[in-house]
Amino acid sequence: CRKQNVSSKAIKPTWIPFTSTVSVEERLAFSLHLMNDDFSKVRESNTYYLGDVVHIEASVITANHMPLLLFIDSCVATLTPDKDSSPRYPIIDYHGCLIDGRSEDSSSVFRPPRPSFNKLRFNLDAFRFYQDSRTVIYITCHLKVTAMDRTPDSMNKACSFRKPANEWTPMEGKAAICSCCETKDCGNAPNWRNRWGRDVASKLGNVTNLEGDTVVGPLVI
After folding, report:
1. Alpha carbon distances (Å) from 17 to 9, 13, 70, 118, 169
2. How far is it, in rounded angstroms, from Cα 110 to Cα 214?
3. Which residues are CB-neighbours of 173 under 8 A, at least 6 positions away?
4. CATH number, domain 18-150+210-220
5. DSSP symbols for 111-170
6. Taking a C-beta distance cutoff of 8 angstroms, is the pair 49, 86 a contact?
7. How confident is the model at residue 20 (pLDDT cuts 50, 70, 90)?
8. Spatial contact of 30 and 214, defined as CB atoms under 8 Å apart
9. Whose CA is closest to 171, among 159, 163, 182?
10. Which end of the chain has less neighbouring CB within 10 Å, N or C?
11. What global pTM score does this model have?
C-alpha cells in the first residue's frame, strides 16, 4: 500500500545511507546499492519523494570462482533493518517475481539487459506504508547465484509485469518461466549441489552456501 500525498518540505536524513555485504567463506560477497538514475554510480542521497524512482543494483563478487549468474530470489521492505519485523511489504517474491510491479499504481521493473553476469538491476517506485507516519524504510533482498550455463527456470529467473501487454516477461529465458508469478506457485529449491551436478560442484571448492541476505537503507521517503 502507498500513501497518496507527501509534504513538499525536504526531510533531512537522520542516517547516512549504507549497504551491506554478506561474504560466503570469504569467497563470495553479495551486495545491494542505491544507484543514480543511469546506474553509473552509487547515489549520494538516501532521500526520495513519492513519485520518485529508486534504482537498486544487486551484485556478487565471485573472487577465484568460475563465473556465476546472480539472481534476486526475494526482497522485502520493512521499517527496521529486521526483515521479519512488522509491517513488511514484499517487493520481489516467488523466486524472482517483481510483484510490486503488479500493483495498479506501480511501474517497478527489472532493468534489462544485465550489465554483467554478476549484477542485476531493478527500478522501484518510492512508497510509504499505509497509515504509518514513519518515513524510513529498509529493503532486504535474498540473493543467490547459479551456474552460468544453467537455463533460466521457475526457480532462477528475473520476471517483470508489463502492464501494456498485461503479462509477465523474463529478463532471460522463455516466457513460460514467469507464469508461476501469477499463480504464486514457483516450486521449492532442491539441494544446489544435486541441482548442478558433481562437475560444477567440484569447481566451487569449499563454498557451502551460494545465497545470502543483504540490506540497503535507510531510505527516507
Report:
1. 20, 9, 23, 23, 32
2. 18
3. 151, 152, 153, 157
4. 2.60.40.4100
5. -SSPSSTTEEEEEEE----TT----EEEEEEEEEEEETTPPPBTTB--EEEETTTTEEEE
6. no
7. low
8. yes
9. 159
10. N
11. 0.82
Residue where the block lists cell 503479462: 167
Query: Cell 546472480 appears where?
Result: 70
Q: Say if strands 109-110 and 88-92 run parallel, antiparallel, or are unpaired.
A: unpaired
Give the whole-angstrom CA distance, residue 123 versus residue 37. 9
* Mean pLDDT along residues 153-174: 95
Q: For 83, list phi and psi in degrees, rounded to 5.
A: -65, -20
pLDDT tens digits, residue range 57-90? 999 987 666 778 999 999 999 999 999 999 999 9
Burial grade of 77 (CB within 10 A; 0-12, 13-18, 19 or more): buried
**Average pLDDT score over residue span 180-191:** 81
